Amino acid sequence: MVESRIRTLVQDLENTDNILTAHPCIKGISNTYICLTEEEQAAASQGELNVEAMKRKEEDFVGQEYKKVYTKNFFVGLEIEKKPSEHLCNKSVDLTELMK
Prior knowledge:
Elements: H1 2-14, E1 19-24, E2 29-35, H2 38-45, H3 51-54, E3 67-73, E4 76-80, H4 95-99
Antiparallel strand pairs: 1-4, 2-3
């Protein structure tokens, strides 16, 4: 289901004016985190877990109560075309006409 949403996102991105190409990383990156509190579980599910908690190993918590949170991150590479500035458009003004 996630992959189909990413496909839809990529199509929508490519239909915008400034994005030339949208290239998804289709495999995704999987992680497993050891969480000691419900707050850490919520942070891990949102990708906001602190670095110390991200480095925890399961063998360090044998006999203690913890929860595993499994995540998978997907990335989309974008080739973006810069919009021309409105004030730098190709209009010329004859200043001599303004001085008369």
